[in-house]
Amino acid sequence: MLSKTLTVKNPSGLHLRPAGVLSQTAMKFKSDIIVEYGEKRIVAKSVLNVMAAGIKSGAEITLICDGEDEAAAMQTMTEAIESGLGEM
């Protein structure tokens, strides 16, 4: 299991479009991918769960990848989040 703390850089947080990009990226991997935000644990492969979490711009999240391709998942997901999920 790998975990990493990241800051959401999207100007308007994880609304529909960036949440969709995050979920689509997560679905490419066999590993379980969880986003922790405050007290919430969100399954990253569900766009509705990601949107419902209400993650705002500048929020700190913890990304957790657990499974056979966790290292690749962590690297790809980190790059996607740090690049603004297609919005920057």
UniProtKB/TrEMBL annotation:
<dbReference type="InterPro" id="IPR050399">
    <property type="entry name" value="HPr"/>
</dbReference>
<dbReference type="GO" id="GO:0005737">
    <property type="term" value="C:cytoplasm"/>
</dbReference>
<keyword id="KW-0963">Cytoplasm</keyword>
<dbReference type="Pfam" id="PF00381">
    <property type="entry name" value="PTS-HPr"/>
</dbReference>
<feature type="domain" description="HPr">
    <location>
        <begin position="1"/>
        <end position="88"/>
    </location>
</feature>
<dbReference type="GO" id="GO:0009401">
    <property type="term" value="P:phosphoenolpyruvate-dependent sugar phosphotransferase system"/>
</dbReference>
<dbReference type="InterPro" id="IPR035895">
    <property type="entry name" value="HPr-like_sf"/>
</dbReference>
<keyword id="KW-0598">Phosphotransferase system</keyword>
<protein>
    <submittedName>
        <fullName>PTS beta-glucoside transporter subunit IIABC</fullName>
    </submittedName>
</protein>
<dbReference type="InterPro" id="IPR000032">
    <property type="entry name" value="HPr-like"/>
</dbReference>
